[in-house]
Specification:
With 212 residues, the protein is α/β, with parallel strands linked by helices. It has nine helices and seven strands. A five-stranded parallel β-sheet has the order 2-3-1-5-6, sandwiched between helices. Helix 3 packs antiparallel against helix 5 and helix 5 packs across helix 8. The longest helix has 19 residues. The protein binds 2'-deoxyguanosine-5'-monophosphate (DGP). The site of 2'-deoxyguanosine-5'-monophosphate has 12 residues, from helix 3 and helix 5. Pathway: Pyrimidine metabolism; dTTP biosynthesis.
Length: 212
C-alpha cells in the first residue's frame, strides 16, 4: 500500500502573533509522537528570489509594488515541487506564512484589490488547515516594539489584519481562528489538537488547489 500523504498546515497572523514559535513547537510535538513533520517558511530568503525579497524587506533595495508581489508569489511557486514531494512521502509540512500573507500584505497597500492579489497564487497546493493567530493591535504592542523592516508599523499591521478578515470569509479554505493572547503552552495545545485532526483527515483526501 502506498504511504499516506502528509498534511499541509499553515500558520498565519499579523506580526508578533507568535507564528514562528508555534510552528517550531508543533513540528517538535509531531516528531516526538512519531509523525514525520518539517517546518518551512515564506518568504524563504535562501533562494535567489528570496534574497531579492530579503533586501527589499530590509530596505536595502526598493522594488515596485506589483513586482515585489509577484516575487513573493514566485518564491512560493519555486518551492512547490519540494512541497509536493514531501507531502507524498508522508511528511506533514508546517508552514510559517503562505499565500494569505501574500494577499493581505499587498492588498493593504493603496491601489491593490484582493482579486488581483490572489491571481498569481491560484493553483498553489491548498493547505489542509490554515490557523490564524488572532491578536489585537493593543496586545501586539504589549509584546514590544516592531523591528526595522518594511511593513513593521502598527498602522500598516491594522490594515493587514482587516485584509486577513476578508480572506477568512472564504469557505473554500479550512480556516481556524486561534486566540494568540493565551499562554504559549495553551496556544500550542489548541494548535496541536487542530493539527492532529487535519493530519487524520488529509490522509484520506487528495491535495487540493488553492482558490480554484
Ligand atoms: P517574516 O519573515 O515572517 O517576518 O515575514 C517578512 C515580512 O514580509 C512580514 O512583514 C510579512 C511580509 N510578507 C510575507 N509574505 C508576504 C507576501 O507574500 N507578500 C508581501 N507583500 N509581504 C509578505
Amino acid at each position: 500500500m502506498a504511504c499516506k500523504r502528509g498534511a499541509l498546515i499553515v500558520l498565519e497572523g499579523v506580526d508578533k502573533a507568535g507564528k514562528t514559535t508555534q510552528c517550531k513547537k508543533l513540528v517538535q510535538a509531531l516528531q516526538q509522537s512519531g509523525r514525520p513533520a518539517e517546518m518551512m517558511r515564506f518568504p524563504d530568503r535562501t533562494t535567489t528570489i528570496g534574497q531579492l525579497i530579503s533586501a527589499y524587506l530590509e530596505k536595502k533595495s526598493d522594488l515596485e509594488d506589483h513586482t515585489v508581489h509577484l516575487l513573493f508569489s514566485a518564491n512560493r511557486w519555486e518551492l512547490v515541487p519540494l512541497i509536493k514531494k514531501k507531502l507524498e512521502q508522508g511528511t506533514t509540512l508546517v508552514i510559517d506564512r503562505y499565500a494569505f500573507s501574500g494577499v493581505a500584505f499587498t492588498s493593504a497597500k493603496p491601489g491593490f484589490c484582493l482579486d488581483w492579489c490572489m491571481k498569481p497564487d491560484v493553483g498553489l497546493p491548498k493547505p489542509d488547515l490554515v490557523m490564524f493567530l488572532q491578536l489585537s493591535p493593543a496586545e501586539a504592542a504589549l509584546r514590544g516594539q516592531f523591528g526595522e523592516e518594511r511593513y513593521e508599523t502598527s498602522v500598516f499591521q491594522k490594515a493587514v489584519q482587516q485584509k486577513f478578515e476578508q480572506l477568512m470569509k472564504d469557505p473554500s479554505v479550512n480556516w481556524r481562528v486561534i486566540d494568540a493572547s493565551q499562554s504559549v503552552e495553551d496556544v500550542h495545545e489548541n494548535i496541536r489538537t487542530q493539527s492532529l485532526n487535519a493530519i487524520n483527515t488529509a490522509e484520506n483526501q487528495q491535495l487540493g488547489e488553492l482558490w480554484k
